[in-house]
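Suppose you are handed a protein chain with no further information: no name, no annotation, nothing but its sequence. What can you learn? This example shows the usual starting point.
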Amino acid sequence: MNVPSGRRERKKAATRQKIADTALELFLERGYDAVGIRDVAAEADVAVTTLFSHFASKEALVFEQDEDFEQRLTQAVTGRTPHEPLIPALRREILALVRHCTADSAAPIRRMIDESPALRKYEESMRLRHAESLATAIAADPGLSQTTTACRTIARFVIDAYALARESADPEAAVDEIFRMIEAAWEAGLPSRRT
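A reasonable first move is to predict its three-dimensional structure. Written in structure tokens, the prediction is:
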């Protein structure tokens, strides 16, 4: 996550984190559906309007690292060293995200998400948004001469790789297997390979 530089930004970030931590604690303690926005705001000692200035919805409280994950994915494209291949850079980032989300400490959160239709729906919309952001970053790279459709396809594959690997009995092996297929799909779409 980006570290805010100014005092005001640090204070806002601390408030945001306090709200997110409080919400997660309450959700895990009482159950997601049993906790309302007002409960979270009261427990975090902030106004409901303050909560909504940091989070657009109750679901967003669970996925408080959403923007950071999205930024990390696009940064895997835009922050590559010159001539670094795209797919290995994306694989490295997805593997880091999978490790984070499959850690033992994340298991209760994962169960809560899996048990809530509202959270599963929010996660799916979040994944589609991440795929679009990633596709945009890939398409904007002048060194990657692919069609918009190819960029969107690879981005979806990468986002799905995260979900599939996270659900696997051996997440790291799943990332390796999936990214071999993604690499083959990327190579197959390169202009020099087209006939």
